[in-house]
Amino acid sequence: MLIKFKMEGGFASFPGLNRDTYIDTTQLSPQQAAQIATIVHSTCFFDQPTKIGIEANGSADYRSYTITIEDGECSHTVQMSDQVIRDDFKELVDILRSLSRSNSSGVS
Q1: Contact in structure between 48 and 22 (CB atoms under 8 Å)
Q2: Is residue 103 over pLDDT 80?
Q3: Distances (CA, A) of 19 to 9, 25, 54, 86
Q4: In which order are the strands placed within the sheet that holds 21-24?
Q5: Interior/surface letters 54-89, b for 16+ CB within 10 angstroms, e for the rest
Q6: What are the distances in angstroms from CA 78 to CA 11, 16, 65, 67, 103?
Q7: What pLDDT was estimated at residue 10?
Q8: Is 91 in contact with 39 (CB distance < 8 Å)?
Q9: pLDDT over threshold 60, residue 15
Q10: pLDDT reading at 47 higher than 60
Q11: What pLDDT digit, counting tens, does each position of 82-95 carry?
Q12: Of 14, 41, 48, 86, which residue is the least packed, with the fewest Cβ within 10 Å?
């Protein structure tokens, strides 16, 4: 599974620091890869709309997330923000944020 994760915005955001993170789950530990696969399956990621929730006025200080997942023949992108993030996606976003910060194996 290949994942492209982008985090933008937030309080005191610096646009130059908003880089895409690429994650190849085959380069992660088997436990991390299985955890991500389980979450992607449980959220029905590939059946979700491309935008989740509607941001209200004054949402400039919230972070927004764009997640693109390619798994075999399937590819799908979902966008959401801290303001409207659903509980079922929170764990996935937390894992991807952690991987993007750690710049561990499989992440560039």
Answers
A1: no
A2: no
A3: 12, 19, 24, 23
A4: 21-24, 2-9, 63-71, 74-81
A5: eeeeeeeebbbbbbbbebeeeebebbbbbebbeeeb
A6: 22, 22, 8, 5, 22
A7: 60
A8: yes
A9: no
A10: yes
A11: 877 788 889 999 99
A12: 14
